[in-house]
Write a structure and sequence with these properties.
alpha/beta; 2-enoyl-CoA Hydratase, Chain A, domain 1
């Protein structure tokens, strides 16, 4: 919000193992608030948002503000995923390739 009000470019360095939903809805609410603030930042002010993804960047961060950058930079060989390999394989009932959640594979 400060960057929006001051018309400043924004850089967010993401590093998250995922939000701990078992601790309540506060984690989920904060991701929504960040995404909403970024929407205002990008759409109303037309300002530059750079997202830097480090290892790990997983869960809701990947599904929300981590991937909203105008420019997305990923640390080499970083683990970037929404869900873990085992969860994806069980959901799809198929094996996913090794390294498919590494930054080099995704970008």
């Amino acid at each position: 919000e400060y960057a929006t009000n001051q018309f400043l470019p924004l850089i967010i360095v993401c590093a998250s193992g995922g939000a701990r939903m078992q601790e309540g809805s506060l984690s989920l609410m904060q991701m929504a608030k960040i995404s909403s603030a970024l929407y205002d930042y990008q759409s109303n002010k037309k300002l530059l948002y750079v997202s830097i993804l480090t290892s790990p960047t997983t869960g809701g961060v990947t599904a929300s503000f981590g991937m909203l950058g105008d420019i997305i930079i990923a640390e080499p060989n970083s683990y970037i995923a929404f869900a873990g390999k085992r969860v994806i394989e069980q959901t799809l009932n198929k094996t996913i390739p090794e390294g498919s959640q590494a930054s080099e594979y995704l970008f």
